[in-house]
Amino acid sequence: MLEVDHVAKTFFSDKGDTDAIEDISIDVRENEFLVLLGPGQCGKSTFLNIIAGLVKPTSGTIKLDGRAISGTDQRIAMVFQKTGVYEWKTAMENVEIGLKYRGVAKKERREIAQKYLDLVGLHGFENAYPHALSGGMKQRVGIARAYTANPEILLMDEPFGALDAQTRYAMEEEILRIWEAEKRTIIFVTNNIEEAVTLGDRVIQFTERPAKVKKVYDLSSLERPRSQVSPEFLRIRQEIAANEELTLE
Amino acid sequence: MEMDYEKIRAEARTAEIKAIQKQKIKYLSISVIVILAVLLVWQLAVQFELVSTRFFDSPIAVIQRIIEKISSKKPDGGLLHQHIWASAKVVWFGFLLAAVIGIPLGLFMGWYHLCDRIIRPLFEIIRPIPSLAWIPIVILLLGIGVEARSVIIFTGCFVATVLNTYTGIRSTNQTLINVAKTCGASNFQTFVKIGIPSAMPMIFAGLKTSMGSAWGTIVAAEMLASSNGLGYMIQMGRSFGEVSLIMAGIIVIGILGFISSGLVSLVESVVLKWRPKK
Amino acid sequence: MSDYKVEVRDLCKNFGSLEVLKNCNFNIKRGEFICVVGPTGCGKTTFLNTLTCLIPPTSGEILIDGEKADPKKHNLSFVFQEPSAMPWLTVEENIAFGMELKHWPKDKIKTQTEKILELMGLTKCRKQYPHELSVSTEQKVVIGRAFAMEPDLLLMDEPYGQMDIKTRFYLEDEVIRLWKELGSTVLFITHNVEEACYLADRVLILSNKPACVKEDLTLEMPRPRDIAAPEFIEKRVHVENAIKWW
Amino acid sequence: MKLKTNPLLEDHGPVYKFFYYAGPVMLIAAFLLLWNSVSAAGKVMLPSPLEALERMITIWSGNVAKHPMIYHVGISMRRVLTALVFSVVVGVPFGIAMGWNKTFRAVFKPLFEVIRPVPPIAWVPLFTLWFGTNEFSRVAIITMGVFMPIVINSYSGVIMVPEINFQVGKVFGAKSTDMLFDVVLPSSLNAIFAGIRTALGGGWMVLLASEMLGAREGIGFLIMQGSSANDLTLSIVGMVMIGFFGALFAYGFDFLERWLCPWKRK
Questions:
Q1: Which of B56, B79, B94 is the last residue of a domain?
Q2: What is the spatial distance between Cα D31 and Cα D41, in angstroms, rounded to a whole number?
Q3: Domains along the sequence of chain C with CATH
């Protein structure tokens, strides 16, 4: 449904040009959980921003349902990193912005937002401001907000990057539960191999900057719910890790 | 159909670079044109007497006036560099005095709770009083000499310095304090090794603020109680109705203020070389 | 003299009416590598701060070499979760920081700093400031600083929390290498069970708040350990089930 | 009921506790004593604290320079407030526009950069020359001092809105007006308030300067009048007044900020 065709991106600044993405082409399938995996600052977030229409690619095109898109699109919503929740809005006000900006009447949009707040397990926190919420709960707000906008494709940019290991496991199970309940296409960016193997139908591994597709792993054979200690899981994790370069500097 | 993506990419890159440069040039030229236009309108307005020359003088005349002041004592009895020296001396003296007293005080108040507790009430009384309000008392106690004006500058700089230093050391990262403590450092050692370096960026922010206010204060102080300095020169320009002298004074003060804060920034960049560059 | 390097007896800590630690008891042998795991929000930070004497316990005591623990007398060293290199010191100054606080002789500081720089492969960036380094390298500096003091007890609070697997594996091996080389006693806190099982001689499992040591599990597996070996997975699952809340 | 203990005192001895409670009082007492001894020495015409207090009361109940005290205070307040309200109403939108629109910025930013290093007080003679020494001229000078920090702070508030806030807005389909009122304004409110607070501090300074340089009423005039009429108590009363109202305004704005930003309340 989503086709990324030979996208490349270079950033120009006074200090010099940075090639962020060299040349990436990807086909995304309907209702697929696609994970984009890459080391630190490899340009995977830039790539996601290009799909979202936030960054203009230097060259290449994005096609949704066969038609090229430029700029942001109603059919695509995004879950941002931890700072993406507006701190001056309550959980409810945050969740409903997609509908508000689209001009949906207050009563109607509150109803829809409430449904998704309940789905992510935030019932009772509608009027809480983000500073009163824990890191995991803020991310739930972000997920509910993206779902409320009723998109065909959900983009997630390292949403659990700042959480501790256990909360992260909990959120991974949570996102899978929500995805099973309301099937959408999800494109999930992470640098965590374990997370990638836990979540993805397919994992696309990126190279160091400038980003290219290094390898595509089809994990549809790995049954859900996945056990993180099954031999198959550990084998795939090991295989991906072996392909990753060690980056310390 | 096989396409040459290498070539397409290269073309797209050149196009984008061009577009970016075009944008930059556009905004830069707007800025330059606006500044030039303002100067031109000002000059022409005065030249064709669209505004009264009693109230305005042309930019060229003002610059001529500045150059003239370098060698002429008229009408205020001092050469430009004498006025500059008189003002700068007082500003720097008051500023440095405030730094020497204010920084340690702010550090101690921020680190030692008892110190904060004892000094805070008196400090809170003094804090909201603008430095100019001290003029009568200072004149009474110290006359109208260099010391008196330095003390007035000091009162203005002091508050900003203490407050910023205080905030700076208060925001010391607790983790770094814990590191020192687990290494067995005493409270005083932690203060010296962790607290003071952590406060440095805010200390410099405070110094910059106080330097800015110092130039404002000196002008007023010299207008009110002095027989030299740039403020006095401006005041004389006012008394003799010489607009160009007032404007010249304003411009010189602006330049001096700019240089002074530049100097503080320079010291900052040397002392704080460990900070990430923006 | 006691057999144990560190003994913790009936350690309790209350904040007002809130009990955070309740009767924590455990011992650490000289040169042992201990990992502590517990569910999120179990009072881990309080546990650490009490152990390092940053906050006084409500009751109970911590003995090092049979004496009451005192950061001024004993060598305690702490690697915190967030990057804690002093931003105003260069890499080598950071490593020497703890030794200087302990007033080691100058030449000893110098040789020790060299040794650590060498061991950790930080010689290249010795003159750099922390902001010029990547997060993982900064964490290496902090770990180097902690080991350099030859601590009686080295506490590490989830130092690899946000790192990806590859970097984590690498740094875990590094820590094991340093530990073996210098013979330190290490207490390593983590949320990650796999990491605990990979590193530890013994795993202490904490209960929910109020935290106490629920289980003391000895791991006798040869190093380097194979994370896919059945025995390893068995232990890992065991520990995971003991703390699982999610 | 349980007695609350002060955690700051827990680990300290009696000497510490003594100074904790007595210290602040002692320092203020020492300050008053010093003041008293300077005035008692008689070398300068400094009134003693007690005399000052006495005069303060008589000043408040009588007239100073043909007007009751409250008139002088009131007129100073009015000048500052007028300048402040004008600057907020005009300066905040101006600063936001400068941060928001690149062309607007290109036009006005350089002008601001040129004027910025000139201390507002330096304009006093020029303004009195242009507009005379009337009320308008004074308010204009104070505005000169207040306007600048408000514009600069509003501008940098907008400039420093994290990129991610814009991205969120864009992805969820915010139009320009949504973006301005729903994203930019709340994100930069902090900086705007910081600007107003700085502006207020500077505003009092300029007010004093303009009133001290040839006015017939206002706090600055009182301070200057005290100095030239050798009546230092009057100056001290002026100092106390401006300090008091300065602090009052500052607290008022803290309160206003908390009221306007409910998401910051703990």
A1: B56
A2: 16
A3: 1-75+152-246 (3.40.50.300), 83-150 (no CATH)
Positive or negative: CA dihedral B185, B188, B192, B195: positive
Per mean pLDDT, which range of B107-116, B156-165, C39-48, D85-94 is the poorest?
A: C39-48
Strand partners, C24: C11
Query: Do D182 and A149 make contact, defined as CB atoms within 8 angstroms?
Result: no
Question: How far off is chain A from B24, nearest CA to CA, in Å?
Answer: 11
- As beta bridge partners, residue C64 has C6, C67
- Closest chain C residue to A190, measured at CA: C164
Cβ-defined contact of B184 to C72 (cutoff 8 Å): yes
Q: Who among A54, A74, A131 is closest to D167 (CB)?
A: A54
Q: What is the DSSP string of B57-126?
A: --HHHHHHHHHHHTT--TTTT--HHHHHHHHHHHHHHHHHHHHHHHHHHHHHHHH-HHHHHHHHHHHHHH
Average pLDDT taken over every residue of chain A: 89
What mean pLDDT is predicted for residues D54-71? 80
Q: What is the pLDDT of residue D37?
A: 86
Nearest to A170 by CA among A192, A146, A204, A140: A140
Q: Determine contact: A6 vs chain D, CB below 8 A.
A: no
Please indicate, yes or no, whether residues B13 and B124 belong to a single structural domain of this protein.
Answer: no
Chain B, 108-137: which have a CB under 8 Å from a chain D CB? 113-114, 117-122, 124-137
Q: How many domains does chain B have?
A: 2
The pTM of this model reads 0.86
- The answer to whether residues B43 and B74 belong to one domain is no
The whole-angstrom separation of Cα D257 and Cα B56 is 42
Q: State mean pLDDT over D135-145.
A: 89
Residues B196 and B90 in one domain: yes
Q: How far apart are CA C110 and CA C102, in angstroms?
A: 14
Which chain B positions have a beta carbon within 8 Å of D38's beta carbon?
141
Q: Are residues B24 and B123 in the same domain?
A: no
Residue B179 forms contact with C (CB below 8 Å)? yes
Of A28-37, A215-224, C86-95, D54-63, least confident by mean pLDDT is D54-63
Among D23, D123, D124, the residue with its CB nearest the CB of B117 is D23
Per the CB < 8 A criterion, the answer to whether B54 and B243 are in contact is yes
Q: Is A75 helix (H, G, I), strand (E, B) or coil?
A: coil
- Sort out which chain A residues have CB atoms less than 8 A from B8's CB and list them: 6, 59
Q: What ipTM is given for this predicted complex? A: 0.85
Question: Would you say residue B192 lies in a domain?
Answer: yes
Contact assignment for A58 to B17 by CB distance below 8 Å: no
Instruction: Sort out which chain D residues have CB atoms less than 8 A from B216's CB and list them.
Output: 119-122, 202, 205
Provide mean pLDDT across the span B82-99: 91
Query: At residue C208, what are phi and psi to the nearest 5 degrees?
Result: -65, 170
Q: Tokens in use for D238?
A: 């002026």
pLDDT at position D3, please?
43
> All domains of chain D, ordered by start, with CATH?
1-46 (no CATH), 59-264 (1.10.3720.10)
Q: Looking at this protein, which amino acid is placed at residue C222?
A: P
Judged by average pLDDT, the poorest of B111-115, B183-187, D41-45 is: D41-45
* pLDDT at res. D8: 59
CB-closest option in C133, C167, C228 to A246 = C167
- pLDDT average, residue stretch B17-34: 90
Most B CBs within 10 Å, among D39, D115, D205, to test the B interface: D205
- Same domain membership, residue A179 and residue A71: yes
pLDDT reported for residue B1: 46
Residue A183 forms part of a structural domain: yes
Q: Which domain holds residue B128?
A: 69-271
Q: How far is B12 from chain A (nearest CA, A)?
A: 6
Per residue in A121-169, pLDDT (tens digit) is: 888 999 999 998 888 899 999 999 999 998 999 999 988 888 888 888 8
